């Protein structure tokens, strides 16, 4: 303690002229009192600027003192009935606890979290009672990204409101029978309740930032009036360590997202222990956000501290507050008032003197700011009214507030879900819950009569704000017609002889057609991440413009070109820069606009498939949870389609990842007409029928002739497989070649070689979606298993292959696992051989890469011959002859190991 005392007195001891210092401080105080804080700030900035210009070294600091940002005299007090609100919060705390504890007494492994809501309850209460608007005819409603682990408290509130039944509360985390409540916010599982999923952690802050920007986009383009709507996102201080949490705060400030409020619940703890035991998380976050250009409001100390801080004329208390680390603060709230007196106020004699007339209980009742309704209301009010910048509220709370010895401010608080009878009794007494002793063991829910004044007040507050939250709109009220397939005739027809184009170019034609559509044109949202020129989409820059709230404040360097870079206040393109996660977050905002804005939007997010799917996998899963609708376009897809790019650019696994998301429909089309059929059907399902699915479509930059649509194959394209070309009907031996993407063309060439060099016919099958074929097979297999007395259902691919003969060879530009999905559904007794691109990519030409990965036409021929030889149809010497004929090196290392 003596060392800390020495540090506290050092500043004063080093002041060579204390009188002069006092005069300057008195002068500043007079300016603040007479002319306001803005004038004081201006004068200070001028003085700092002068000192620096004269050579003074004044280090930059984006931190302010460790006190509340809003001074006491500027606080706007909460206008509500605080007695009613306190009782309502207490009942919610109790019911949240009861729900979790009852679930775990019935089944000890269900889990659940009490402590997060316990620290957040006051903040959520103020928001729900006074700030957050529900959707109405004249207001689109506020959007809430609620801290995921606080879900029990949200359910507890909805239970008091009558929106959830006791039976649902008793089935917390028991969803399978259809009457339970999801563990965290899951729109997929509770489609009329939760607006957004906010677990896994870090995704809430990132998605909220781009959601706020998308509201600005809709308003600027006159699609929806979003001028009075706010996006509120709640997250924990430990959650801010997730890179996604902080990764886009610069964009939020740059885009002036004053419709965004981030509330960081600084309870100083994460799952295992302190967030910054040796530091101060609030100060760290303040520096980050203030440096990025945010409006930062700190709510640290409750009202009991105001009088003490007013007495702190020498700044001793503030210095102790600043120098005390978070690990100590956590310890104080886990102990008692006597401990705080000795270990906090005891750091300086004058502090002990300051609290001499306070009892230990008085000291213990010195609360943190996040538990005081007036402090919270004042901060929320400033955030609500702030213009020009996003706002972050750094609110200090106690994790597990009210849980007593079982969890309050303890490292175990996050995981505490089983309270003993004594802890339950303590909580009952602390929050004055009217439950008698003989009922405590049952941990009953508490809900007063509907006409109780507190309940009337609860409903009235929400009535004034338009209705109840959270709530989610499962369908848009509007209906939009989609164009017929014939609208895309320019890509359905075969290309002229000698004319070669890629599926990427075909997609550009498709999206250009959609942009001209009178019904859908304004609802198309092209999203790009600095690869427009790679995909040949730069023509859209001038055509529809790039959205920028400031417009274009400069003359672009390429203004003299036809396809110059044009930014516009009403631009239609969302250009996210080198930022796949940001692009995906914008896509999610657009893909769920039917729900959040009652406006159907159709986003096309085009990205390098390698950089896209593996980087945004967690967000893609969240999109499934949010029932997103839109198109993800994986450009330059496949392991061998990129000339010269190498290991980190070549994608052989994005379709394997996409297959893991149940409501994602993945396609790997080879031809332009296949892309058109898939996109048009996607529009029908997602826009016209408002089905909760989204599409992942891979595109290639390899140019080749396009054969055009054969009428009647549309159904097969959409199901995932169809016969592209039949082999010679008179041939004695026959094989079946399945392919997708650009490697389908290698199967076509292999069929020609088999016929020409060996007299073997090959039927060639295009498989735009091996994943959908596999899902169909699994569905048929499951149906047959649970209906054993009925005739078994045959999977679609089985029906196709049963009509054929010969070995089946599937080849793709992806890992073998991709085509292995359908092995189980091949007809019994048939050989099924898979070729794929397992292993790391590398730089070379397409021809060399396909040779390296053993997926070119020659390897397909050899695989077909070897399969025939294994079946005894041809001699093995024929296979050896083919290997020699095509110059294949039998001793070449397996590409998987290279």
From TrEMBL:
Residues 147-300 form the Transketolase N-terminal domain. Its cofactor is thiamine diphosphate. Keywords: Oxidoreductase, Pyruvate, Thiamine pyrophosphate. Coiled coil: none annotated. It catalyses: N(6)-[(R)-lipoyl]-L-lysyl-[protein] + pyruvate + H(+) = N(6)-[(R)-S(8)-acetyldihydrolipoyl]-L-lysyl-[protein] + CO2. InterPro entries: PDC_E1_N (IPR035807), PDH/Transketolase (IPR051157), PDH_E1 (IPR004660), PDH_E1_M (IPR041621), THDP-binding (IPR029061), Transketo_C/PFOR_II (IPR009014), Transketolase-like_C_2 (IPR055152), Transketolase_N (IPR005474). Its EC number is 1.2.4.1. Residues 720-855 form the Transketolase-like C-terminal domain. It holds the Pfam family Transketolase_N. It comes from the Bacteria. One of its GO terms (molecular function) is pyruvate dehydrogenase (acetyl-transferring) activity. Residues 495-707 form the Pyruvate dehydrogenase E1 component middle domain. Component of the pyruvate dehydrogenase (PDH) complex, that catalyzes the overall conversion of pyruvate to acetyl-CoA and CO(2). PANTHER family: PYRUVATE DEHYDROGENASE E1 COMPONENT. This is Pyruvate dehydrogenase E1 component. It comes from Massilia rubra. The lineage of its organism: Bacteria, Pseudomonadati, Pseudomonadota, Betaproteobacteria, Burkholderiales. The gene is aceE.
